[in-house]
C-alpha cells in the first residue's frame, strides 16, 4: 500500500462480514429483509402515533422520535452495504466514509439520549403521576428532543473533525461493513493519542452519562413500585415501563457486547459480526417490543391498517 494523506478522491475498501462469494446472496437477502422490516415497522409506529389523537402524549411523542432515529440509523449503514454486495464492489470514498461515520455517531447518540429521556418520562409518570402532565408539558418535551439533537450533532462533528486530522495509507482495507470510528482511528498511521483520548472520554460521557441517568430513574421507579400495596397495582405500574426497559437492555447489552468481544478476541471480523446486533437487529425489534405489549398502540395500528385497506 502506498503511503500518503487521503484526499476527497481517495478510497477505502469495506471488506464486509464475509469475503466468501457464495455467502454474498445470503447476506444480501438477510440484510435486505431486516432493513425493510425495520423501515416498515418504525414507519407504522410514526404513522400510528401521528394519526391517533389518543396517542398524542409525551411517551408516544418520544417513541415516534425514537422510531424516526432508528430508520435513519439503519439507513446510514445498510443501503451502502447492499449496494456494495449487489455491484460486487467494496469501495467507499474518503468523503463517503467520513459522512457515513458522522451520521452513524449522530444517530447512535440520539438513540442514547432518547432512551434516557424516555426513562425520565417513565420516572415522572410512576413517581409523580398527579403532576405528570404539568411536568412533561409540550414545551419541555420539545426542548428535551432539541437538546438531544444539538448535543449529538456537536459530538458527531467533533469526532469527525478529529478523524480528518489523521493520515491513512492509500486504499486501506476496513474489516467491517461500515466506517466505524474505532476502526478508522486504528487504521491511521499518524499519531492517534489525542483521538483515542477524545474517543474514550466521549464514550464515557455520551454513553456512560445517559446510562447512569437511566439506572437512577429505574432505581426510583422500582422503589416507588415496591411501595404500591396491591399486586395488581405493581403489575400495572411495571408494565408501563417493561418495553422501554427491554429496549434499553438490548441497546446497551449489544453495544457492550461488541466492544467486549473485540477487546477479548482482538478480531475485527468478530467485532463486525457482533455490530449487526445493535446496528440492524435492535432497531428492527424495537417496533415489535413496543407494539406487542401496548394495547393502545396495537389498536392504533389496527385502525391505520384498516384505513389503508379500505382506501
Automatic annotation (TrEMBL):
Keyword Transmembrane helix, does the record have it? yes
Q: Kindly give the membrane topology term recorded for this protein.
A: Multi-pass membrane protein
Q: Where's it found, cell-wise? A: Membrane
Q: Which GO terms describe its cellular component?
A: membrane
Q: Which residue ranges traverse the bilayer?
A: 26-47, 59-79, 91-120, 140-164, 197-219, 240-260, 272-292
- Recorded coiled-coil stretches: none
Q: Where is the G-protein coupled receptors family 1 profile domain positioned along the sequence? A: 41-290
PROSITE patterns, sorted = G_PROTEIN_RECEP_F1_2
Question: Which molecular-function annotation in GO is an example for this chain?
Answer: olfactory receptor activity
Alphabetical keyword list: G-protein coupled receptor, Membrane, Olfaction, Receptor, Sensory transduction, Transducer, Transmembrane, Transmembrane helix
Read off the CDD domains from this record: 7tmA_OR7-like (cd15234)
Q: What does this protein do?
A: Putative odorant or sperm cell receptor.
Name this protein carries in UniProt: Olfactory receptor 7A17
Amino acid at each position: 500500500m502506498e503511503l500518503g494523506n487521503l484526499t476527497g478522491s481517495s478510497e477505502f475498501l469495506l471488506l464486509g462480514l464475509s469475503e466468501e462469494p457464495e455467502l454474498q446472496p445470503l447476506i444480501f437477502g438477510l440484510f435486505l429483509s431486516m432493513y425493510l422490516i425495520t423501515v416498515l415497522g418504525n414507519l407504522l409506529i410514526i404513522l400510528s402515533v401521528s394519526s391517533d389523537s389518543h396517542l398524542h402524549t409525551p411517551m408516544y411523542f418520544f417513541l415516534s422520535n425514537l422510531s424516526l432515529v432508528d430508520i435513519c440509523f439503519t439507513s446510514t449503514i445498510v443501503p451502502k452495504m447492499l449496494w456494495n454486495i449487489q455491484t460486487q464492489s467494496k469501495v467507499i470514498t474518503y468523503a463517503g466514509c467520513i459522512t457515513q461515520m458522522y451520521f452513524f455517531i449522530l444517530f447512535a447518540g440520539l438513540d442514547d439520549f432518547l432512551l434516557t429521556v424516555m426513562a425520565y418520562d417513565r420516572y415522572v409518570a410512576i413517581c409523580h403521576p398527579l403532576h405528570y402532565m404539568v411536568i412533561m408539558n409540550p414545551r419541555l418535551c420539545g426542548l428535551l428532543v432539541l437538546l438531544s439533537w444539538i448535543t449529538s450533532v456537536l459530538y458527531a462533528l467533533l469526532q469527525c473533525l478529529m478523524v480528518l486530522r489523521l493520515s491513512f495509507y492509500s486504499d486501506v482495507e476496513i474489516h467491517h461493513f461500515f466506517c466505524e470510528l474505532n476502526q478508522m482511528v486504528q487504521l491511521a498511521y499518524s499519531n492517534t493519542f489525542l483521538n483515542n483520548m477524545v474517543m474514550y472520554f466521549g464514550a464515557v460521557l455520551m454513553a456512560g452519562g445517559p446510562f447512569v441517568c437511566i439506572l437512577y430513574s429505574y432505581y426510583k421507579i422500582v422503589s416507588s413500585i415496591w411501595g404500591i400495596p396491591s399486586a395488581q397495582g405493581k403489575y400495572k405500574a411495571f408494565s408501563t415501563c417493561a418495553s422501554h426497559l427491554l429496549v434499553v437492555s438490548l441497546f446497551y447489552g449489544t453495544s457492550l457486547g461488541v466492544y467486549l468481544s473485540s477487546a477479548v478476541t482482538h478480531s475485527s471480523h468478530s467485532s463486525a459480526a457482533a455490530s449487526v446486533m445493535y446496528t440492524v437487529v435492535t432497531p428492527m425489534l424495537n417496533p415489535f417490543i413496543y407494539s406487542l405489549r401496548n394495547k393502545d398502540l396495537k389498536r392504533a395500528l389496527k385502525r391505520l391498517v384498516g384505513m389503508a385497506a379500505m382506501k
